[in-house]
Amino acid sequence: MTTRTDDRLSDRHVAVTGGARGVGRGIAVRCARAGADVTVFDTKPDVAEETASLVRETGSQAAVYEVDVTDESAVEAAVRSATDERGPIHGLVNNAGIQRAVPLLETSEVVWDGHFEVNAKGTFLVSKVVAASMVDAGTADTVVNISSVGAERPFRRQGAYGASKAVVLAFTTVLAKDLSDHDITVNAVKPGTVETPMVEQWLEFHPLR
């Protein structure tokens, strides 16, 4: 049983992209434990429902919407459905991302573009659509973008990943300035290595010791 710890986010609606597993799932559950109702945007709705179940255990409400964050029309439709059915989004966590460990000289255009499509473009599109809805609602809201320590101190074989996460940092700074007049706070978080299925898979091929 996942219990509620406080009510700091009571009466708030938080949306998390890539919330089906790993860091995204942890963020969704932690927000719920602080009282928030949670919307999960993910390409894997069946897995995301497991996150939703954990959210509901806290007493908070949860909903899952299948969406590809690289598709602007799909993002617009998902955000419209979430706000129509669940009310205004007060907090957005852009967590959806991919990570592939490939030496730069072996990095294909497909791998490079894939990182920028999901990690950079996805963050841009979801931020753009959700922030517009926040501006329309006229409430004091929050956007948090998940970057990485690798954006400033990239690891070996992480060229595409590190570069795409560096874009997230620059984008966050600009978005914060653009939305400052609307009482919307924008920040980026730069996690290091977190124990998730994606990292475990990476460590199978690139052990730390």
UniProtKB/TrEMBL annotation:
Q: Enumerate the InterPro entries for this protein.
A: KR_dom (IPR057326), NAD(P)-bd_dom_sf (IPR036291), SDR_fam (IPR002347)
Protein origin, superkingdom: Archaea
Instruction: Please provide the record's keywords in A-Z order.
Output: Oxidoreductase
Outline the extent of the Ketoreductase domain. Answer: 12-187
User: Which Pfam families does this UniProt record tie to the protein?
Assistant: adh_short
Q: What does the similarity note say?
A: Belongs to the short-chain dehydrogenases/reductases (SDR) family.
- Name under which the protein is recorded: Short-chain family oxidoreductase
Q: From which source organism is this entry?
A: Halogeometricum pallidum JCM 14848
Provide the organism lineage as a comma list: Archaea, Methanobacteriati, Methanobacteriota, Stenosarchaea group, Halobacteria
